[in-house]
Design goal:
Layout lengths: L2 H20 L5 H11 L2 H25 L9 H16 L8 H13 L1 H33 L4 H27 L2 H8 L6 H10 L1 H17 L1 H29 L5 H17 L9 H12 L4 H27 L5
Helix pairs in contact: 1-14, 3-4, 3-6, 3-11, 3-14, 4-5, 4-14, 5-6, 6-7, 6-10, 6-11, 6-12, 7-10, 8-9, 11-12, 11-14, 12-13, 13-14
């Protein structure tokens, strides 16, 4: 990727981080007091996400290797693209609209545009698909561990039906490919219609090749498919340790199962508000509602959301720095 494009991604991220820092809904004194209260738990949380990003990179690495040799691309460089891609996604409105083009452009010199595109699309699909699996697992956990009221039963049923419906769509995409379908969807959006149709006509063969590569993973390389999906699911479960560490600062009456449910329902709320950069407000509200649903103080959710924001800011800054570091000409 040229330095001009890297600078564009970097500038957008810096502006977004600046806006985010100046719009914190707590005073800086209160923020520092809360960070001091976290103590050594905060470095543990930051290190925890290093391992989560390594798991994410392993999932993408498996997908890339299934398409052939990638001897010129090291795991460390793919890790750099992973962290930077997530950082750009965090600060991009409508989520998944900045990090994916960045990853494709960085990967293109190593494996070509078609393979880079198919691997990124496959990884994003796997990352999103693991959300549905995680939410369904959370519903099962809740039913097994808590008494289900009538109102909660309706909510859990709706969540399950939504996840099953979306999973069906994704499985169809895995079997037939998604690149051409995404471009066709763009052809029905007023401002994108003209460009999407022209792009589809000019790149028909490339789109077909990308879809063939996407379908190939599910049809002929099922072990790779389920390995990548399992790693993404494991990354989500490991991520629940973050909430366990945060809430243990405040109380010892919290189990890891409770933390899984908090993360599941708060992430569901955050993804409903996907159009906001970093899901501002949605994440905090989701945490508060999730802990309240488990009969815990809503203040625990607010505190957990605050520390999570600090962790996100840290890794966003790391990712944006990596955009400019260690690039080959």
């Amino acid at each position: 990727m040229s330095n001009r494009f890297r600078n564009i991604f970097l500038a957008f991220g810096v502006i977004a981080v600046g806006i985010m820092l100046f719009t914190f809904d707590v005073s800086y004194q209160e923020l520092f007091d809360n960070l001091r209260r976290a103590g050594y738990y905060l470095p543990l949380i930051l290190i925890l996400w290093l391992f989560i990003y390594l798991i994410n990179t392993s999932s993408w690495y498996i997908i890339l290797r299934s398409g052939g040799s990638i001897s010129t691309l090291s795991f460390a460089r793919l890790f750099k693209f992973t962290v930077s891609g997530f950082a750009i996604n965090y600060v991009t409105p409508v989520g998944l609209m900045g990090g994916e083009p960045y990853r494709i452009m960085e990967l293109k010199p190593y494996v070509g545009v078609e393979r880079a595109t198919s691997s990124v699309v496959l990884y994003v699909m796997m990352h999103i698909f693991s959300h549905f699996v995680f939410w369904i697992a959370a519903v099962v956990l809740y039913v097994c561990c808590y008494k289900v009221s009538f109102e909660m039963g309706i909510v859990l049923t709706l969540v399950t039906l939504l996840c099953v419906f979306l999973s069906t769509i994704f499985m169809k995409g895995y079997k037939n490919g998604m690149a051409k379908a995404c471009v066709n969807i763009g052809g029905h959006i007023p401002f994108l219609k003209k460009y999407a149709i022209r792009f589809a006509e000019n790149n028909k063969e490339k789109l077909e090749n990308i879809d063939q590569q996407i379908a190939l993973l599910h049809k002929q390389k099922k072990s790779t498919f389920y390995s990548a999906l399992s790693l993404e699911f494991i990354a989500r479960v490991v991520g629940c340790l973050e909430i366990w560490l945060i809430l243990n600062i405040l109380t010892s009456d919290i189990s890891f199962v409770d933390c899984i449910l908090v993360v599941a329902f708060s992430s569901l709320m955050a993804n409903i508000l996907f159009f906001l950069p970093m899901q501002l407000g949605g994440r905090e509200g989701g945490f508060a509602l999730a802990v309240a649903g488990l009969s815990l103080s809503g203040a625990y959710g607010v505190y957990a959301a605050l520390i999570t924001r600090v962790r996100e800011c840290f890794w966003i800054i790391v990712g944006l720095v990596l955009v400019k570091i260690g690039n080959k000409r």
